[in-house]
Amino acid sequence: MGWPVTLPAKGRSFPIALASFIVLQAVAALFFVADVTADLWTTALGAHSVLEALVTSVLLIGIVLSVAQLRWTLREMEMQGRALEVASGDFVRFIERQFDSWSLTDAERDVGFLALKGCDIREIAELRGRAAGTIRAQLASIYSKANVAGHPQFVSYFVEELLSRAAERSQDQTEDQPKAAAS
C-alpha cells in the first residue's frame, strides 16, 4: 500500500544554493589569490596589495565558514529526516495497534489506512478493485468498531493522538533546553 505516506523533499534547495554560493566564492578566491600573488611578485608591497590580501583573506575565511554552515545544515537535515522517520514509524505502529484493538480485518485495515490518507470511497474502491458499496460497508464496520460516527471522527481520533505526541515532544525539548544551557 505504500504506508506511511512519503513526503516531498522540501527545503532541499537551501543546501544547493549554499553549495553554489561556495563554488562562486571559491572561483572569486582563486582569482584574488592569483592577483595578490602576481602583485607581490611584480611590485613592492603597497597599500593596494595589502588591501587586496586582506580582502582575499576575508573571502577565504568566508568560504571556510560557508563550508562549515553547509556541513551543519546537511547534518541537521539528516537528523530531522531521521526524527521524522521515527515519528512516522511510531505513528504507524500506533495506528496498527489501534486497528488490532478494534479487531479490524485485513481488508478493513487497508481501507482504514486509505481513509486516513484522505482517499474518498471511489478512490479506495479503484485502488482495491472493489465496488464502492463494498468500501462503504467496510468503512461502516470500521466506524462501528472504532465507536465513531463517521470519517471526520475517525480521522480526528488519530490526528488528536499525533498532536498530543507532538505536544509531549515539544514539552520534553523545552524541559531539556535549560539542562543543555547549564552544561
From TrEMBL:
The UniProt record lists the HTH luxR-type domain at 101-158
Identify a single GO molecular function assigned to this protein: DNA binding
Give me the segments passing through the membrane. Answer: 12-34, 54-74
Q: Which UniProt keywords apply?
A: Membrane, Transmembrane, Transmembrane helix
Domain of life the protein comes from:
Bacteria
Gene3D superfamilies, sorted: Winged helix-like DNA-binding domain superfamily/Winged helix DNA-binding domain
For biological process, the GO terms are: regulation of DNA-templated transcription
Q: What is this protein called?
A: HTH luxR-type domain-containing protein
